[in-house]
Each structure stands twice: as structure tokens, then as C-alpha cells.
Specification:
Blueprint lengths: L12 H19 L3 H6 L10 H9 L7 H22 L1 H22 L9 H11 L11 H20 L6 H21 L5
Helix pairs in contact: 1-4, 3-5, 4-5, 4-6, 5-6, 5-8, 6-7, 6-8, 7-8
């Protein structure tokens, strides 16, 4: 009888690298008592003359306020990411991460000058809304997308208006809008990445 050999498959490379970078940034933040997070992995109003301002517009999605924050986002990224990366390809996943980071960073910079923003929650919400477009057909809007949008985005709007809990509902909403827009655009074109 032939023995079954199992090996670990390295799937979803972009998602795995992103989660690894988030892990490293979180560890750096913890061991430096949040100094690395403030310097490199959080976006906030700062001088346009500082090169780090531009870096932080993207790198803030890597930093997390602690293990609980990181683990919550990492688990969702690892659940949704492989399916999305298999369907749309690594390049699209990296583009979604960069677009979400940039837009949430700019909006936070302009409209919330006293708030430091960090974490991959916006990317998670982009993935959630993008995943709800699975099975999209031309001329139709999936009911799953409508329900996910109402539940996730609606919850963020309500919490943003009623709670003061140090969670960036704006980042979640923008991430969701990016995911929905990309999902619609990709599926409308019938684009398949390999």
C-alpha cells in the first residue's frame, strides 16, 4: 500500500506576505512600546515635507495596536484572502491593499487631523465586500452583496455615530466601498486573472 505524502502548499502568496508584514509591524510596535507604530505604521496629520508622511499613507495598514487587533484582522484576511487571490490573482490583491491603504490614509489625513489610524481593518472590509461578489452575473446584483453591505457598512455607520470606541469606522466603510467597487468592476468586465 502506497503511503500518502502530504506537503504544505504555499498558496495565496500576496495574502501570506501581507499578514507576515502585519505580524512584523505589530511585533515592532509592541517591543518599541508603540514608537515604531507611531513612526512607521500609523497615519496622521503631519508635514508634507516629511518623506515618512507618504510612506505612512500606505504602511498604516500594517500596524496594529496589539495582538487582539492583529489576530482579528489576520484571521479574516487568512479566511477570505486565499479564495479572492485564487479568483482574481495576486496582482489584484496587492492593488486592493494599496488602494485601500492610500484612500483611507488620505481621508484620515484630511478629515481627521487629530486621529492616528492603523490596522488592516479597511483591507478586511474590502475583502468582505469583494467576496460577496462571487457568482456575480451581468445585469444582476447578488443578494449576498446587498445583505453584506447592509450588515457590515450599516453597522459601521451606526457605530460611528453612536460609539466612541477608538475604532476607525471610516476606515471600514472606505475599505468596504473599495472592495465593492473593485468587485463590481472586475466582475462586470468578466476579467479573470491567472
Amino acid at each position: 500500500m502506497k503511503k500518502l505524502k502530504l506537503k504544505i502548499a504555499l498558496n495565496a502568496k500576496a495574502v501570506l506576505i501581507f499578514v507576515l508584514l502585519c505580524f512584523i509591524a505589530t511585533v515592532l510596535g509592541i517591543v518599541t512600546n508603540s514608537n515604531a507604530t507611531k513612526l512607521l505604521f500609523a497615519t496622521y496629520r503631519s508635514s508634507w515635507l516629511s518623506p515618512l508622511t507618504y510612506v505612512r499613507l500606505f504602511s498604516h495598514v500594517l500596524g496594529h495596536s496589539g495582538w487582539e487587533h492583529f489576530l482579528g484582522n489576520a484571521s479574516m484576511l487568512l479566511i477570505l484572502g486565499p479564495m479572492l487571490e485564487e479568483k482574481h490573482g495576486s496582482k489584484v490583491i496587492v492593488e486592493i491593499i494599496l488602494i485601500t491603504g492610500f484612500i483611507t490614509g488620505i481621508v484620515n489625513f484630511i478629515f481627521f487631523p487629530g486621529v492616528a489610524l492603523c490596522g488592516a481593518s479597511g483591507v478586511v472590509f474590502a475583502f468582505i465586500l469583494l467576496a460577496s461578489f462571487t457568482g456575480f452575473r451581468e445585469g444582476e446584483i447578488p443578494l449576498t452583496f446587498i445583505l453584506v453591505a447592509i450588515i457590515y457598512i450599516g453597522q459601521q455607520i451606526v457605530q460611528g455615530l453612536t460609539l466612541n470606541d477608538n475604532i476607525s469606522n471610516m476606515g471600514h466603510i472606505i475599505g468596504g466601498l473599495v472592495g465593492a467597487s473593485v468587485g463590481y468592476a472586475l466582475n462586470k468586465k468578466g476579467r479573470r486573472s491567472y
